[in-house]
Amino acid sequence: MKLNIALLAGDGIGPEVIDQAVKVSDAVAAKFGHEISWTPALTGAAAIDAVGEPYPDETHEICMAADAVLFGAIGLPRFDNDPSAKVRPEQGLLKMRKALGLFANVRPTFTFPSLIDKSPLKRERIEGTDLVFLRELTGGIYFGKRGREDNDNTAYDTCTYTRAEVERLARKGFDMALQRSKKLCCVDKANVLETSRLWRETVQRLEKEYPEVEVSYELVDAVAMRLVQWPNSYDVLITENLFGDILTDEASVISGSMGLMPSASLGEKTSLFEPIHGSYPQAAGKDIANPLATVLSAAMMFETAFGLQDEADAIRAVVNRSLAEGVVTEDLAEGGKAYKTSEVGDWLAKNI
Ligand SMILES: NC(=O)C1=CN([C@@H]2O[C@H](COP(=O)(O)OP(=O)(O)OC[C@H]3O[C@@H](n4cnc5c(N)ncnc54)[C@H](O)[C@@H]3O)[C@@H](O)[C@H]2O)C=CC1
Ligand SMILES: CC(C)CC(=O)C(=O)O
Ligand SMILES: [Mg+2]
Fold first, then answer.
1. Smallest CA separation from ligand 1 atom 3, residue
2. Is 350 considered catalytic here?
3. Ligand 1, residues 277, 330, 334: which to mutate, most atoms within 8 A of Cβ?
4. Confidence label for 118 from pLDDT (cuts 50, 70 and 90)
5. Of 25, 74, 192, 339, which is least packed with CB atoms within 10 Å of its CB?
6. In CATH, what number does 120-255 get?
7. 316 and 336 in contact (C-beta within 8 Å)?
8. Is 221 known to be catalytic?
9. Residue 117 CB partners (closer than 8 Å, separation 6+)
């Protein structure tokens, strides 16, 4: 099979972790007789520096022409530390998600048997955790009207959701629940927010179409607590953009490192695969970041974008072996040998 993949490395550790995902993908492709054609494209601060905008038209065209997109991360301190910057890397990420129609971000949270004792949470709480967030990705407060008024002394961001936006995400959640343990949790703040009440009402209406699915409705603040207290009690969780962004970073603690959790951003036209972490600028250029979140995002790409299950399983199997054998970056080394980002990638590619 010929696989045409757009490659958006981005900023900070983005290029380093993407390099490892490319090595591993090429190795799995060679093993199973596929040919990958990678088309690199600019995004984030790298694109601002090169052409003045964070998601150039040319990058969009490359993404639309590809069968799938593999994305690293964007963002740099020189923008984070300058609140007055008008053009920002994150605008490129949001523009890209909107332009590609990537409304559903699938963020699984799971544990690795060899890492259970590396999590700051107790073994008996986290063992067997296997849950998945479906985060709405192209609506809500990240895309609402924002601005300043009152002589620059007041700022506002608005959160808007349409019933259609909620429904398409929720349907994906119900469908996913049917494939899994038939449990769905709608995470909102319906005791306060009107948008959350629209979410709840829309999901309640859909319940009739999915009588086999047991739905619970929980407030986001309580979920933030229960997620680390009893992660095993959750299976599929659906939620809006902001809540999903925050809760999934929190959930990464269950697995043992932010550098482990992958995601798939799905839409009608195309799909994009990206680690849940950001550009971790403190580690940029040091060859120390954990590449596994990006490598596992590539596994999701083989599975979801190309229907290549054996290839995805092969990547997951070699990742599990690397962890069991202690071939890990410094975030997981705990005083033992810390491998470089590139060494982990080489090991995975060699052992697949
Ligand atoms: N999807 C994206 O491109 C995202 C971009 N960002 C941007 O990234 C920049 C940094 O943001 P932060 O809040 O520091 O989030 P971050 O996710 O980049 O880093 C937070 C912490 O997570 C850990 N971490 C993250 N990735 C890791 C990896 N691969 N290996 C080992 N440890 C890892 C590190 O301890 C790090 O200090 C900002 O400019 C932000 O806007 C933030 C989140 C997502
Ligand atoms: C710019 C942010 C919306 C990126 C982020 O934190 C994420 O998608 O997880
Ligand atoms: Mg985030």
1. 73
2. no
3. 277
4. confident
5. 192
6. 3.40.718.10
7. no
8. yes
9. 123
Here the ipTM equals: 0.99
Alpha-carbon distance of 348 to 351, in angstroms, equals 5
Give me the mean pLDDT over the 98-116 stretch: 97
CA distance 275 to 74: 11
117 is catalytic: no
Selecting among 249, 287, 313, 346, the annotated active-site residue is: 249
Mind listing the pLDDT tens digit for each residue in 168-218? 999 999 999 999 999 999 999 999 999 999 999 999 999 999 999 999 999
Numbered ranges of CATH 3.40.718.10 in the chain: 1-106+261-352, 120-255
In the numeric block, the tokens 């910057």 are attached to 85
The DSSP annotation for 267-300 comes to: -SS-EEE--SS---GGGTTTT-S--HHHHHHHHH
Residue 228 token pair: 């680390």
Q: Superfamily assignment of 1-106+261-352 in CATH?
A: Isopropylmalate Dehydrogenase (3.40.718.10)
H-helix segments, the chain:
14-32, 44-51, 57-65, 77-80, 89-99, 123-126, 163-179, 194-207, 220-229, 241-255, 292-304, 309-324, 330-333, 341-351
